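Hey all, quick one. A colleague (J.T.) asked me to put the zinc ion job into the tracker so the inputs and the structure tokens live in one place instead of scattered across chat threads. No bug as far as I know, just bookkeeping. Sequence used:
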Amino acid sequence: MGAQVPTTDAQRVLDRCDDLAAVSATPDGVERVHLSPEHARVNAVVAGWMAELGLDTRVDQAGNLWGRVEGQEPGLPALVLGSHLDTVPDAGRYDGILGVLSALEVVRRLAPRAAELPFALEAVAFSDEEGTRFSTALMGSSAVAGAWREEWWDRTDAAGTTVRQAAEAFGLDPARIGEAARRPEELLGYLELHIEQGPHLEAADRALGVVTSIAGARRFTGRVVGEARHAGGTPYPRRRDALVGASEVVLAVERLAKERDGIATVGRLQAFPGGVNVVPGLVEFSLDVRDEHDADRDVLVEEIRAVAERACAARGLTLELTEVHSAPGVYCDEALQRSVAAGIAVTGDAEPLRLWSRAGHDAMAVAAVTPVAMVFVRCEDGVSHAPDERVTLADVAVGLDAFEAAVLDVARTHGNG
Ligand SMILES: [Zn+2]
């Protein structure tokens, strides 16, 4: 915006993102997965930073790290600020981490005035958003929302270690997982700052945006079944080539999603038996479908299914589409969205861009227990889940100002009682 912005806090945030990357570097890049030694190390480092700010810190029974400062009086419901510290494999430095460290900077600014706030202020670092280790995302925030599932204890990582074993090795007591759940009356709301992980803010030349909703994905395992036969000996009229059929499905998925302004992706595809001289008799693939509104997403799914079935039938192939995951989308709270917009307006962007999140976030799980809202920060070229995730110092600086102003706006709207 051309205005002079203080960069000290923002520089500390960026430096600490680097620090956490260094603390959890592995031979294959930055990786911090749920209940790992890297997870314990960053929790300890961030707990130290929280303690410096005068926060009471604790790690809950799901491995989430919390810090709290009381408001006007002890025991008030908390406004929670945070994000996650876990990563995908070979990760960048900002996905999740930026939100946790920005929350700490906002607490640093407001802690001296906490006695004026009509709520307690809490910072949280969720333990498992990405689901990298146990293939189940949002374990940490789900536990906080009281939505832990007993069957998760028996999920295993690539080495065969169960969640239960990993939790015990981390020093947690699986029998006490229920203690991680927060009650709605303890909470006022949850605000999360996160990199956009997409190109929309950059394209609109905006540093920040207000998130309207977080899309819930539906995921499927698809199978196209044909017949494996000799590649040389089988003339075209006799072929039931599963890979050619699956290719038509992939193209239809892209075309239909574009037409309906949704997002659908085939991320994995494998042909069997996989011989150079064999017509593929079977293809297995994944399908991930998202949209701003669940109803539109569900229409897109049915359209994809119908078109794919027709394309396969025309080639004498059969299609099986099995749902393996379905999450409802979550709308951000209207009042908290207004506070986020008011916060961004303080930085000079009077009419902030509103956008829906195509990616999942902890706020989705937390929404089951308290109202949520999010602010997105522009990231270079929309790159995320990769080592070259980038944000600018100036964007982080206005992000902190907006985040702080949003919290003060919540205080204003709740202080008028
Ligand atoms: Zn994230």
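Adding what we noticed when we looked at it: The chain has eleven helices and 18 strands. The chain has a mean pLDDT of 95.
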